[in-house]
């Protein structure tokens, strides 16, 4: 029996490998294809393979003495935004997945043994790492955006950055398919620095376990943070992306932090009072908050403010009445809305973050990053500003 082509035309070509089987653009539509034709055409839509791009159910139907297969598509084909339109998030393999075992093989036995190990284990997916819930939440937001704006390219785009050799790519692709992640862009540098590529991709945020590379990215003007493996991890929302930011040296410059470090708390308060109407300069993560705000506004424009799948938080050691007003005036002047602002006046951030349950929290001081992580928050360090020379576990900065 001859195969029955999809009645909808024109149809896009199969995105994976050369194939003559048409894919319907609408979900929940069916294509009847003769089973013999599938094998003859080497169709990638092998019913034994579950792809993240096209999920389908297989049904057998007997027509006379031949068998046809109905492929019922249950998801819409996803568009890939161009870098200049997307909010581009670059994540390293070592924070998206857990690769400690492989890292030890590399450190103890060298590159050749490491590559051999990876190839031998290429059908074993890596376990999720600290950036995994964040990346899943980005995909959730993308799904909501696609529902509201089917043609828009203003979406999150995720790039997997790795120093690995291309041989390891097979295991990474298998892992991405296993976890049903939507990552099409890889940057496999084979040991070279990825920073130049990140600039070319218009990267809005770079997350890595390598502090030196994160500092290099920050020096190039790319928002970046170092991630760690928390011993415990609180559950986070699966329907809303929640991102929390520290203020000084994260959203704002370290101008006020410098006054505090050099002259103490009284001088800091005096400086903030005198400069209440002077805007703070921008910090390394301001651009990322701006990008989140741009996407939030797309939901607001469709009347979805109350169930917006992106929520942002400011969690700062500043006090509301004294030094907080300058921070709020600055955000307002930038046109940035932050959904919730918590002025802790020196109280520990960990308990507050435990309640917020962000997918990621950014802070420039390791003291706060460690405090948050101890309580199960996925915290990332932004190695920027004067606090890098002062902050330590034994000598935390008091509230301002
Ligand atoms: Mg700070």
UniProtKB/TrEMBL annotation:
List, alphabetically, the InterPro entries matched. Answer: 5-nucleotidase (IPR010394)
Molecular function per GO? 5'-nucleotidase activity; magnesium ion binding; nucleotide binding
Q: Which domain of life is it from?
A: Eukaryota
Kindly state a single biological-process term from the GO annotations of this entry: nucleotide metabolic process
Q: Which Pfam families match?
A: 5-nucleotidase
Q: Name one GO cellular component term.
A: cytosol
Protein name in UniProt: Uncharacterized protein
Source species: Periophthalmus magnuspinnatus
């Amino acid at each position: 029996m001859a195969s029955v082509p999809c009645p909808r035309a024109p149809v896009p070509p199969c995105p994976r490998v050369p194939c003559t089987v048409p894919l319907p653009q609408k979900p929940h539509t069916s294509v009847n294809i003769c089973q013999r034709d599938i094998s003859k055409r080497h169709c990638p839509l092998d019913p034994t393979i579950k792809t993240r791009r096209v999920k389908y159910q297989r049904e057998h139907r007997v027509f006379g003495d031949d068998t046809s297969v109905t492929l019922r598509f249950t998801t819409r084909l996803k568009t890939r935004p161009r870098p200049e339109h997307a909010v581009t998030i670059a994540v390293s393999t070592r924070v998206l997945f857990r690769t400690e075992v492989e890292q030890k093989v590399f450190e103890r036995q060298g590159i050749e043994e490491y590559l051999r190990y990876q190839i031998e284990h290429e059908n074993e997916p890596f376990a999720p790492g600290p950036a995994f819930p964040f990346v899943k939440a980005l995909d959730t937001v993308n799904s909501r955006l696609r529902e509201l704006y089917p043609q828009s390219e203003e979406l999150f785009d995720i790039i997997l950055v790795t120093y690995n050799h291309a041989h390891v790519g097979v295991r990474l692709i298998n892992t991405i398919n296993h976890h049903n992640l939507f990552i099409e862009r890889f940057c496999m540098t084979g040991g070279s620095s990825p920073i130049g590529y990140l600039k070319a991709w218009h990267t809005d945020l770079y997350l890595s376990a390598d502090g030196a590379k994160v500092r290099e990215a920050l020096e190039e003007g790319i928002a970046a943070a170092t991630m760690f493996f928390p011993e415990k991890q609180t559950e986070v929302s699966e329907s809303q992306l929640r991102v929390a930011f520290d203020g000084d040296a994260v959203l704002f410059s370290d101008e006020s932090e410098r006054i505090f470090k050099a002259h103490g708390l009284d001088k800091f308060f005096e400086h903030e009072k005198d400069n209440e109407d002077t805007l703070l300069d921008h910090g390394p993560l301001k651009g990322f908050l701006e990008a989140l705000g741009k996407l939030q506004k797309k939901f607001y424009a469709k009347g979805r403010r109350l169930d917006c799948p992106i929520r942002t938080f400011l969690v700062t050691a500043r006090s509301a009445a004294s030094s907080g007003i300058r921070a709020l005036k600055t955000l307002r002047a930038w046109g940035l809305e932050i959904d919730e602002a918590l002025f802790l006046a020196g109280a520990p951030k960990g308990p507050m973050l435990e309640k917020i349950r962000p997918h990621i929290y950014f802070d420039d001081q390791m003291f706060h990053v460690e405090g948050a992580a101890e309580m199960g928050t996925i915290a990332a360090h932004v190695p920027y500003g004067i606090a890098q020379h002062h902050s330590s576990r034994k000598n935390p900065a008091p509230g301002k």
